[in-house]
Task: structure prediction
Amino acid sequence: MEKAIGGYFELELPQREEFHKNALRLNSGKNCLEYILRARKYNKVYIPYYTCDVILRPFERLHINYEFYHINIHLELEQAICLKEGEALLYTNYFGLKQTYVESLVNKYGSKLIVDNTQAFFAKPLNGIDTFYTCRKFFGVSDGAYLYTDAKSDFHFEQSTSYEHTGHLVKRIDISPEAGFQDFHESDDALADEDIKVMSKFTQRVMQSIDYEDVAGRRRANYEILNAALESGNGLKLSMDDNSVPMVYPYFAPIDGLREKLIGQKIFVARYWPNVLEWTSENDLEYKLTALTQHLPIDQRYSEKDMNRIIGII
Result:
């Protein structure tokens, strides 16, 4: 189609380069996984207990077997898994801090490894390894995901649109985070039920407007501030290497009422993932991680002053 000239203005966004410019652009991380499962035709996949329940939808939809596995306090496999023909292992790069471990899994499992980088947007993909990312855990968009794979699809998918699901993004600026909270959940639910589609033009355009170097620097600096103050009381000892760009600061500490206190002071901490409390027992590490970890915001919107406010409350 010919480019439109004139008329009303769209959003004013700078034009840069996408971080994952060479990836396949889809509408959600869940659908990236579905693409892999459909293209690879796996019989069975091992998945961690410590993950979002949305990850199960592609397995249920495609009638593919899966089996849960446990992780240890380092967020690594509790036991090695022996894969048979037609099987694969799905591992989550937790909080963007497990890239070195991901590389060690590649040495063991090779192309039978599937890397879930939805919490590790800045982690580089590894050659020959199916890897997927999501946009909305790191940036102000309602959808969008990137997939690296050499598996070719024999199925067709349409292009997604975002305009019906961006209300929460505007309301947060215009009114307050609380005003857009219901819209956020409705957008989330709609995306979870959506078929595989190509990333929307709107989301791609937003992703082309981001200063990724600045985002990475801010996240790393904020993580370091929180870690310097909270590391001694944190049950998770996760190191940030030179290439890591964390999603949040995971603070694993048995402090009664801390989550409620933080939210009461308008420090909104996500819980990853409530479904784990149903999948596991109170004696399991995954249960404790879900119940007791506060995922402290460290993203590019915030400064050292904001980090010190969080530290003061804790």
